[in-house]
Design goal:
Bact_transf; 17 helices; 4-stranded parallel β-sheet; 467 residues; Rossmann fold; alpha/beta; transmembrane helix; TIGR03013 family PEP-CTERM/XrtA system glycosyltransferase; single chain; 10% strand; 52% helix; globular; Sugar_tfrase_EpsB_2
């Protein structure tokens, strides 16, 4: 993995994306050349010279559509089976719709119907071949990393289990464990590496051909080999602590094994003026575009909410925002009018009987969230950020969930990393899992991550996998 604007990006996914960009650009050029160009015609050659913008537009539209369909959330077990085609065809249909709108607004970019059909056919074949080669090569050992765990206790066991999962983005081969005397042994004894007297950590790494050491020791007092770890790092061997390993592999920050110093001295948590200005600009631009595109849909939603039970169209509810300040969030009403007739706040449950029929549809498609655009314009919320919770629940969660208040260091959002990665939550345990995603966002927030979250939100809406 490597980082773009603090966000961890898989090298495998990046490589696949790069190859498919080349495939799509090539398909656009070949499709137009075969369909339209007579290579001996100077005018036609001149047309091809100015075709780059159209080819880029085609590539961006298809890559965006494939991302929205989740085609870059790879599953090596799935490979090229049925779900691949179930995602590829809708991706191309979405891309075609985007291009049709673009070509209507800018006719000079248009391919022509015949060239467009040929380009799409070539692109589909090219992407299939690229993915077939990619999934075949993913079985090769050169894509695996050999890692060693320093530690043999509960934390090392948890890290190794994570590494052994058939990861979508990274494959590991575990060379073994080097336990420390201060910890109870919780791993398979056959995986413990034999350390002879006089063996240094560097020599063990060389002996077992290890490229990375994961330091998974909770108690680092007494006998912790800090000098040997430094020697390994100076020899070009990657040394990673457990918190960073979890952050990298799960895009979460695990609070149960987190050292406060890691948060204090680690990178991220950018709240500079430049980031704040870019964030606010992004919020206003996105909110304006979404409002313009969805205003007719919002009018229909208001009509259906009113028709279903003749109750209020909107509801406002107190939520906790940035720096713990409260504000009132606005949504389309998705529950019965008497949803909390007992007077006590309740967690919303999955398949909650209080949700109306149309309200259930709005929740799955996130239509009920659209009135929160008003909160964004007022500056109480961002378009992307942690989900705002009610003060009643915040008071409870602060008591039982470590670092819960950290999420209040940024504005809450209409959509967020936790919503697109974890989805539904209705308990303190769910709140803990979502907090770990929220902490990742707060630590690594950037314009790049905001754009990724918006693309993932579109996927959630399309597949109706919202809360």
């Amino acid at each position: 993995m490597f980082r773009i604007s603090n966000h961890y990006v898989s090298k495998i996914v990046f490589l696949l994306l790069f190859v498919e960009v080349l495939v799509l650009l090539g398909a656009a050029y070949i499709g137009v050349a075969v369909r339209m160009l007579d290579l001996g015609d100077p005018a036609a050659s001149a047309h091809l010279d100015h075709f780059f913008t159209s080819a880029v537009a085609f590539t961006v539209a298809i890559i965006f559509s494939m991302s929205a369909m989740g085609m870059y959330q790879l599953d090596f077990d799935e490979g090229l089976r049925h779900p691949f085609f179930m995602k590829l065809m809708p991706s191309f249909l979405m891309g075609f719709a985007i291009l049709a709108l673009l070509f209507y607004m800018a006719p000079e970019l248009s391919f022509g119907r015949g060239a467009m059909a040929l380009t799409f056919a070539l692109a589909a074949v090219g992407i299939f071949v690229a993915r077939m080669a990619f999934f075949k090569s993913s079985e090769a050992r050169f894509l695996q990393s050999r890692i060693m765990f320093l530690g043999g206790g509960p934390l090392a066991k948890e890290c190794s289990e994570l590494a052994q999962k058939h990861s979508n983005y990274h494959r590991y081969e575990i060379a073994g464990f080097i336990p420390t005397p201060s910890e109870e042994l919780c791993i398979d004894t056959t995986k413990v590496l034999k350390v002879r007297d006089g063996d240094s950590l560097v020599s063990l790494v060389r002996q077992y051909n290890v490229s990375e050491i994961v330091v998974s020791v909770q108690n680092r007092r007494g006998g912790f080999p800090i000098k040997e770890l430094l020697d390994c790092k100076l020899q070009g061997i990657r040394v990673t602590d457990a918190a960073t390993f979890f952050e990298r592999e799960t895009c979460q920050i695990r609070v149960d094994s987190l050292q406060p110093s890691w948060l204090v001295f680690g990178g991220g948590f950018d709240q500079s003026f430049v980031r704040t200005f870019m964030k606010r600009t992004f919020d206003l631009v996105c909110s304006t575009l979404i409002l313009a595109l969805t205003f007719p849909l919002m009018l229909l939603a208001a009509l259906f909410v009113k028709m279903e039970d003749r109750g209020p169209v909107f509801y406002s509810q107190e939520r906790v925002g940035k720096d713990g300040k409260t504000f009132y969030v606005h949504k389309f009403r998705s529950m019965r009018v008497d949803a909390e007739k007992a007077g006590k706040p309740q967690w919303a449950a999955q398949n909650d009987p209080r949700v109306t029929r149309f309200g259930n549809f709005m929740r799955k498609t996130r239509i009920d969230e659209l009135p929160q655009i008003l909160n964004v314009f007022k500056g109480e919320m961002s378009f992307v950020g942690p989900r705002p919770e009610r003060p009643y629940f915040v008071e409870q969660l602060i008591e039982v969930v470590p670092y819960y208040n950290v999420r209040h260091s940024v504005k809450p959002g209409i959509t967020g990393w936790a919503q697109v990665r974890y989805g539904y939550g209705s308990s303190a345990e769910d709140a803990l899992q979502k907090l770990q995603y929220d902490l990742y966002y707060v630590k690594n927030n950037s314009l790049f991550l905001d754009v990724l979250i918006l693309i993932n939100t579109l996927k959630v809406v399309l597949f109706r996998s919202g809360r």
